[in-house]
Automatic annotation (TrEMBL), chains A, B:
GO terms under biological process: histidyl-tRNA aminoacylation; mitochondrial translation
Listed name of the protein: histidine--tRNA ligase
EC number: 6.1.1.21
InterPro entries, per database record: aa-tRNA-synth_II (IPR006195), aa-tRNA-synth_II/BPL/LPL (IPR045864), Anticodon-bd (IPR004154), Anticodon-bd_dom_sf (IPR036621), His-tRNA-ligase (IPR015807), HisRS-like_core (IPR041715), HisRS/HisZ (IPR004516), HisRS_anticodon (IPR033656)
UniProt keywords, alphabetically: Aminoacyl-tRNA synthetase, ATP-binding, Cytoplasm, Ligase, Nucleotide-binding, Protein biosynthesis
Pfam family, one: HGTP_anticodon
Keyword Phosphoprotein: no
PANTHER family: HISTIDINE--TRNA LIGASE, HISTIDYL-TRNA SYNTHETASE
Domain of life: Eukaryota
Lineage, uppermost ranks: Eukaryota, Metazoa, Chordata, Craniata, Vertebrata
Cellular component terms per the entry's GO annotation: cytosol; mitochondrion
Amino acid sequence: MADKAQIQEAIKTQGEVVRKLKAEKASKEQIDEEVAKLLELKVQLGGDESRHQFTLKTAKGTRDYNPKQMAIREKVFNTIISCFKRHGAENIDTPVFELKETLTGKYGEDSKLIYDLKDQGGELLSLRYDLTVPFARYLAMNKVTNIKRYHIAKVYRRDNPAMTRGRYREFYQCDFDIAGQYDPMIPDAECLKIVHEILSELELGDFRIKVNDRRILDGMFAVCGVPDDKFRTICSTVDKLDKMSWEDVRSEMVKEKGLSEEAADQIGQYVSLQGGMDLAERLLQDAKMSQSKQACAGLTDMKQLFSYLQLFQVTDKVVFDLSLARGLDYYTGVIYEAILTQTGPVPVAAAQNGAGEKAEEGVSVGSVAGGGRYDGLVGMFDPKGRKVPCVGVSIGIERVFSIMEQKAEASAEKVRTTETQVMVASAQKNLLEERLRLTAELWNAGIKAEVMYKKNPKLLSQLQHCEDSGIPLVAILGEQELKDGVVKLRTVHSREEIDVSRAKLVEEIKRRTLDV
Amino acid sequence: MADKAQIQEAIKTQGEVVRKLKAEKASKEQIDEEVAKLLELKVQLGGDESRHQFTLKTAKGTRDYNPKQMAIREKVFNTIISCFKRHGAENIDTPVFELKETLTGKYGEDSKLIYDLKDQGGELLSLRYDLTVPFARYLAMNKVTNIKRYHIAKVYRRDNPAMTRGRYREFYQCDFDIAGQYDPMIPDAECLKIVHEILSELELGDFRIKVNDRRILDGMFAVCGVPDDKFRTICSTVDKLDKMSWEDVRSEMVKEKGLSEEAADQIGQYVSLQGGMDLAERLLQDAKMSQSKQACAGLTDMKQLFSYLQLFQVTDKVVFDLSLARGLDYYTGVIYEAILTQTGPVPVAAAQNGAGEKAEEGVSVGSVAGGGRYDGLVGMFDPKGRKVPCVGVSIGIERVFSIMEQKAEASAEKVRTTETQVMVASAQKNLLEERLRLTAELWNAGIKAEVMYKKNPKLLSQLQHCEDSGIPLVAILGEQELKDGVVKLRTVHSREEIDVSRAKLVEEIKRRTLDV
């Protein structure tokens, strides 16, 4: 390790670099990088002068949740969890980090986004990238061959954060998966039903669920004359159709990926198609498509899927869309993705960045749920390669949070961050002990109660606290009330006050706060 | 990087090492270390042969939670959260990792247990070690000067795991803290009231809450003639009194830490003292103690604290114990720790390791909650060093889980892992569509319902699933029922069946499962 003097020298120089970049208004990324180097030097040096200048931030791409955000988050989670429970799901949890090797070779080129832990001796560890691979590891490790489970937890991706659009490096996933050997498309249909229920209940505006099948895609590529070794890379180009025009996608296929123009154009024919069961039937008759066994298998299942979706009454939102590809390697059958079609409210930050008008034109927050069938993943972990067929869906909750936060900002009624039913207050001095005694009585009776941590607080400040945090009732103690064995119970919004005997107080508070 | 051949060679050699250690029944730690090295080599090599042999485990010191464990965990969390809400706490969340620097210099020598992330460019990050330092960072960063909040999340310590005693490297903490400038000991008393409520409600058996004050400890050291620069190290020796005899503690002080025998013996006099308000009063009169301003301040507050604890009716479990020291550096005033005094049930694993009889003699699972006042921590983050007084408590939930799991094992009634109210079944073939249609009707009416993902499941297997997972009702469909527009509703435990009209079914299921 270099000596103090050297480091201090290095810090000075690096400090200049940072100041210069800031002066030049260099890109945030560039500045962050240099600041990080500076930070690193200061950590080496230790000592205080570093701390105050730098630590007052959270890590790049992460955020704290304040009480208001947590109140909203709790509401959203309750909606999602009760849906999962309504469908009979069990709950599991896995560690936030896995052996590095467990994640190796599961995410294709996205693997570069995995967070590794520092090698401090012992095992090589990485933060989980999603909840699906740990789930597959769990199944293989515990020899579970069928389970319907949900798992709600944070996952980690060293991606370029776009926090205004609700894209973070640490974010929640809410996963529901069905593992087991069952008759075709029944669990798959339930997953889509769940997406439909959750997005409807969250009232995020109108949405659409695109459905496709990896076998249909691969079959299509085959009959369009895509060489086998180009399937994946062409697939990932097709995946860009939600962001890029067909012209741009086509030229990427031809110019960058060396696909023949004929093949590209044939693909163009197919990926423009959208429909329902009817489309699946048409394609089964399609001269070219019908030549591919894979495609036919996928199309037959797609018909089956839609028949179940009709029973579930969710076909109004579901579209069979041949342009849906999805990135992840491990999908083997049906794939789906839900998008919000309405203009979401404009995230404040975005608006500030002048993205306002774009939003009004109707910017979509993009995919809010996605998933599919992955019948091969568990086998990758099983010593004997035993397969456990799985299908699941993941709700991308951060975007939902951003929208809900905006709604809350917009709406008049303010979000409560506590559930306190009553404030124990006093107008007179020297009643702290009486206030504490009564508060304890209420706590012991299961009442949610607060008391000010002051010997002699002003009544006004006690009432103000109720106004601010939406506490509906105040129990006011005074010499007279104590003599009479009563409490003055005040309703905050109406300001109406009545005397209630100590004996009846708990009951009265419960009666008046049934809704809380 | 070495070439493939070299690595393969190294893998072979390392493989031998591991096999040899296993043959010699070497210590688990030792084997783990060597296996990790082997693993590392195989990761370098990549390829499949490594995966199947090794990844089927979770990282050292971590565990998965299966549905049964999650059901128990949910119950425990609900008890704790409703207590926190009863006391009017708001909820916040912070990222799982912080800038490394944020954690630097907060944990004394425990800092070596912090998990660092690998430097992949950008900022240097570490996994949080507790929830207190991130909370202080949050307060300073958001200029919050008073808040009552709870935070339930996982923290990370590269400690030697003792999983049989519920000690892990990844574990939950449930923290409740009160930040703000208030009159002395009122928030402190509420924290102790909360510990009392939670440990009582969890029914973990009898418990005791030890209380002391950093100022009393320091004052005591001063009047006993401990040199100022030895306070912290002597303090950490005193902290061992719950595990070591006084003799051993004394000799560590004298032999290892070079304290004079006189000083050690004087300390011995004090740390043997336990009591309540009376003891605080006695020590205020104590010739030696009364010479220390610090001690007197601590003792006066201790009296105040006990007077509030009397109002809260919790003095039955609280002991003023001068031997309580607690490790963490950041405490400045009152400190406390709760321990279970009863013999906990014997953890299975422990019993297997022959720790059984020790358990019967009455092994305590040790501390289940702890906390104290830390008035200086926020100031360490504030650019201007502005202080925000804080007091808080942390519930060490993993040990509680272990106990609850044991209780569940012991008790007859089995833990339900789902909340499903009804199973939609059929005795006849070709009724899949009817089952799906009815199930969707129930889901849409908010009923928790399951259906088998088979075209023609056996009635017996459908009923068996209900027995296994505790589903109380079965809605049976048959040709006849469909004709009559009814459903046969079967109560699983009594096997009694009645016909219910489709129109009344939802209402009837709700009526029969009110308790669920």
